[in-house]
Amino acid sequence: MSDEPTTDGRRTADRDFEVDLDDVLEDDEDGDEGLFDDLLSGEPIFENKEVLRPSYTPHELPHRKDQINNMATILVAALRGETPSNILIYGKTGTGKTASAKFVSQELERTSQKYDVPCEVEYINCEVTDTQYRVLAQLANTFIEQNRTFIDERVEELQDLREAAEDDPSVLESDDDNDDHLDFDSVEAVDERIEALLEEKSEMDDVPMTGWPTDRVYARFFEAVDYVERVAVIMLDEIDKLVEKSGDDTLYNLSRMNSELENSRVSIIGISNDLKFTDFLDPRVKSSLGEEEIVFPPYDANQLRDILQHRSDVAFKDNALSEDVIPLCAAFAAQEHGDARRALDLLRTAGELAERDQSDSVTEENVRRAQDKIELDRVVEVVRTLPTQSKLVLYAILLLEDNGVHNVNTGEVYNIYKTLCDELDADVLTQRRVTDLISELDMLGIVNAVVVSKGRYGRTKEISLSVPVEETEAVLEADSRLSDIENVTPFVQARFDN
């Protein structure tokens, strides 16, 4: 893309469309409102919307005091220069695990700075960083960057000391056994130390995110974390995803490295939604990793109401919520296994819908619309990410529903599925495998599959859609492969239903 000079000396990027600046200014002078003026004209409902996002760590976490105090009791060892026990935190989605762990970590780092104790917490989301290589590389690069900063600060101190020693060599003498000046008996010795530090810094290259043998990455991480005295607390969120993808080698290495470290100590906090994931761990890893276990129970409706009230006081303008909004959001989320994240999403979405309507307040109607929108967004995302074969099976069910055939059976679905495979020149799976795919769609909540008895004719599985037809059809047809399907009219044999 090239830039063209304008008459007033400014440069503009090439565009595929033309804008006449005079016309725009003319419209503005005439008082016509632009695209966003109307949207900005209403009074905002939110004071601070970020407070309602899952990434926000509040200063106070209602109904999690016991779990927070339990974590603090374990991690206080780091402030004494000791190695804290490893911690495993369990609980369903939206029970405050990550928010509580981050809150305790922030307090730990703040207190360590207050008492000048070298203690750091490193957070890794294993749903994103899901291999041993990536975890070790990210940790290594984090500590390498900290070591560079440490060297820069130390070199600056030594350069100040050197300048002072040139004028008065006696500054290198001290009676304090803890004084760094005792390391040097001359200005030349200070110079040598500065040169050695700069040489060490030049050798601290970042670990590439691919390409090295894993043992080399681990060695670099080991050197980086042990470069200075520190207690490093490594928080692994969604730790079960790491184990599922890469096995337990990472956890084995991290949980055993303290026996080899000289200057530093490492502690692990693992956070998981899966209470049974340790069943797949090596017994040695399980014993060293699960030294302390903390369980986060789901919130009930009253607790969710307290959490929403606490956040809404900061998130919304005064009198922006009608009285029934927070109880309704709490009730909806309590049905979803006490998921506070769901409750916060619901309240935020309701506020956004009210703001788009340029309403002065959030009402029960906004909450119900937000519930439908969130549910639809979930369905769209699940359907969009299905494998092609599962999409074909779902499309077959959808075609039958479109043609007025309800509570279809597996045989009817399989016949249409084979026709669709022929249209796309795709591999045709066996009927048993298609039955398995239907069961998977049932588990995802996309279809409802119930086994019913037909008396002497045996048992069959009746299948019906659990999601909106039009939206599901639009998502399926957005797939480049399924968009090639021509009009397929399902042929269904006459039924002898009661």
Question: What features would you describe in this structure?
Answer:
Helices cover 49% and strands 11% of the residues. The protein has helices spanning 21-29, 37-41, 65-75, 97-114, 132-167, 187-202, 214-225, 239-246, 249-256, 283-289, 301-315, 325-335, 340-356, 364-384, 388-402, 410-424, 431-443, 469-477; strands at 3-5, 11-13, 87-91, 119-125, 231-237, 265-272, 292-296, 408-409, 447-453, 459-465. The protein has a 5-stranded parallel beta sheet with strand order 4-5-6-3-7, sandwiched between helices. Strands 8-10-9 form a 3-stranded antiparallel beta sheet. Strands 1-2 form a two-stranded antiparallel sheet. Strand 9 (447-453) and strand 10 form a beta hairpin. The longest helix has 36 residues, at 132-167.
* C-alpha geometry: globular
- State the helicity in percent bands: 40-55%
The main pleated sheet reads as: 5 strands, parallel
Beta-strand content estimate: 5-15%
Q: Which H/E pattern describes the elements?
A: EEHHHEHEHHHEHHEHEHHHHHEHHEEH
Instruction: Round the mean pLDDT to the nearest integer and report it.
Output: 83
Identify the quaternary structure here. single chain
Distance between the termini: 69 Å
Structural class: alpha/beta
Strand order of the largest sheet: 4-5-6-3-7
- SS field, number of helical segments: 18
Rg (CA only): 31 Å
Tally of DSSP β-strands: 10
Low-pLDDT parts are 6-17, 494-498
